[in-house]
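Weekly structure sync, notes
Attendees: PL (lead), two postdocs, one rotation student
Agenda item 3: pending single-chain targets
PL asked that the sequence for the first pending target be pasted directly into the notes so everyone works from the same version. It is reproduced below exactly as submitted, 114 residues in total.
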Amino acid sequence: MTKYSTPKTLPRPDDPPAMVEAITKLNERGIGFDRPTHWQLKIDEWNFYPVRGTIYCDGALDAEPERGLDALLARLLGDRTESRHLATQSDSNHSVTRKPLLVFINPAAVSETK
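Predicted structure, written out during the meeting:
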């Protein structure tokens, strides 16, 4: 394995253009990320492979239907501008998927407040 002197948040000399663009845009937007492998960027539960444009959520069996850096940014930022750009470039009818917020209410706590 090659050791690099650049920090994880900077592109490496041998990175493909898609990886350089992804790292640059994430840094410009102040989005922290990790780089577990040469081909992968990890942002919270999201795994992005810039060369192929695939986006995986931790624990998912399949990639998300949307692909590319714009789709990742739309997912991370919830930015309407990014979402509109994604919709105009997408070949599918899929919209940007967001995880639902689950709220669990303890019935005992509700009855205590009455």
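Discussion points:
- The mean pLDDT is 76.
- The first helix runs from residue 17 to 28.
Action: rotation student to compare against the earlier draft before next sync.
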